Amino acid sequence: xxxxxxxxxxxxxxxxxxxxxxxxxxxxxxxxxxxxxxxxxxxxxxxxxxxxxxxxxxxxxxxxxxxxxxxxxxxxxxxxxxxxxxxxxxxxxxxxxxxxxxxxxxxxxxxxxxxxxxxxxxxxxxxxxxxxxxxxxxxxxxxxxxxxxxxxxxxxxxxxxxxxxxxxxxxxxxxxxxxxxxxxxxxxxxxxxxxxxxxxxxxxxxxxxxxxxxxxxxxxxxxxxxxxxxxxxxxxxxxxxxxxxxxxxxxxxxxxxxxxxxxxxxxxxxxxxxxxxxxxxxxxxxxxxxxxxxxxxxxxxxxxxxxxxxxxx
Length: 313
Known about the structure:
By secondary structure, this protein is an alpha+beta fold. Helices cover about 35% and strands about 20% of the residues. Strands 3-4-5-6-7-9-8 form a seven-stranded antiparallel beta sheet, covered by helices on one side. It has a two-stranded antiparallel sheet with strand order 1-2. The protein has a two-stranded antiparallel sheet with strand order 10-13. The protein starts with a helix and ends in a 12-residue tail after the last helix.
């Protein structure tokens, strides 16, 4: 219901006279998805600027940053990742071409929030659903915040603008911890567990909203270096879920920890006993039925004593 309301709110907000149907079916309402034409894209090459100005019907405009200057890359401490065309990319996401950099045209260039992440979709439906999921989930520091969306008919692409998480995704964050030679193994373990606590908190926040994420992946968790905040993003497969489905997703999170974190921790000579206990709880191996009913909640409630024998207060 929350997602359907968000979709309707989004469509009403950007209502236009011409709204042909795409033929795709909304899995939540069962009805066809209407197509709103919400923006335009202006090439800026005639002004000597590499990039485009994307105008969302919300009234905001964003300047794409395909090839930002060295000064911007260094000031924002951006990863030096480039595609085959030499354009800087921040990452990639499910059903998207890439995640790149853009500048909010409404803010001064030196403003802390001037530079945002821009997710490009080929086609309208997935962008509309993902943006609606952001709206339905609401404003929560555990969720990456969506700022705007634009559907441009001239290039048959959609663009979603989001806050830029300055610390990168979970994979990059943990790799940096494990390879840092200045850190002792016990210090690496503490930082690893702090990140894991953040990932648990993110998924708990989604489940408390009545949703499941639908795509548990280490690259869908993000860190903000400035605020030391952890948030979850990429809601393209997120759906409303019942408690049984949420418990299954907690197991998927345990599988992610076992697959993506545990081997790297062992290679860095980090003690994984506490991590193994966390994975066991998420897998449902604890004998107490209360733990099996809410494994993530129990872990967070008893984080100071995460060994299984001490989980129940």
